[in-house]
Amino acid sequence: MNGIARWHKAPLALSAVLLASCATTTAPPRAQLDEARAIAARVPANLLTVLSTELQSKGPSGAIEVCQVKAPEMARNASAQTGWQIRRASLRNRNPKGVPDAWERATLEEFDAKQAAGADAATLERAEVVNDGGMQWVRYAKALPTQPLCVQCHGPVDQLGPGVQAKLAALYPDDRGTGYAPGQIRGGLFLKRPVQR
Ligand code: HEC
What we know:
By secondary structure, this protein is α+β, with helices and mostly antiparallel strands. The protein has helices at residues 2-22, 30-82, 102-116, 151-154, 162-171, and strands at residues 85-89, 125-132, 135-145, 185-194. Helix content is 52%, strand content 17%. The longest helix is centred in the N-terminal third of the chain and has 53 residues, at 30-82. Bound molecules: heme C.
């Protein structure tokens, strides 16, 4: 009896292990997922506060510096404070540094597809453990939908203020970050950190 029971158990246990190792995605540890979510909620909200203030006091062409200097600076500060690598990227990037890597690109394409299928862009996220360079990383992404105020600098080129057009053309000769309407996904906020089990 015992022999039979053991015989039946072993292949079951083995197939469970095989299935787990064959799975294409692994969920990050809960604590790290919670942390990534909290940071991804805070960073864009802080940027939005600074951006709104600057737009009111200086107008869109004056506020371009906020996005050019402040946004990367805020991401760098948040990285230094939290230990996560934090950055923004877009399928149609303005800054050449905003080109997505393969995981980011696949994520942004998935976000667009989900939105087209009816999902609310503001809730879109992806979290995964990914092997890279012999290490395991937690990768987290949150969609950044275009809000009405964003189109002052990311809307159709012919609808941008003349000062904004001139400044963007001078700063970003290869700008692809225009032509967006409110609601469309402008890009993503991406976080990355070694897995801590
Ligand atoms: C005052 C003009 C301005 C406004 C308003 C603005 N942006 Fe930007 N945005 C920029 C500039 C300039 C850059 C390039 C920043 C850089 O050089 O790193 C940029 C870059 C980005 C990027 C990084 C990827 C890329 O294309 O280089 C994202 C994502 C982004 N903006 C999203 C938004 C969203 C979402 C809003 C509204 C909440 C917004 N922006 C509002 C000017 C603006």
